[in-house]
Amino acid sequence: PWADSVMLQTQMRFEMESPDGVGVSEQQWAKFLAEIIQPRFPQDVTVLEGTAPAKTGSAGVRLVLILHPNTPDALARVAAIAAAYGPRFGGAKVTRFDTPVRTGN
Question: Cα separation of 68 and 8, whole Å?
Fold first, then answer.
């Protein structure tokens, strides 16, 4: 996508509740971040904590912003992160958005 864009910002929204009712603990999230996200993108990652509407009121979410080159390798690393989350946490959802960006000072 966006073949003429050199850089992309990927936003990944990780739900902390899971369909199996177990959810994702703070310790589990920290381990996922350290083992899955940071090795693939050791720099240019921002993690925001928040809440979102849910069937039972509100649920915790983590929004991960990754600034990366628009290359097949970087896109494959993003896809690997998304693919790892649900199976690891009882089907917890992750939503991904890619946006072309221009960087500069």
Answer: 6
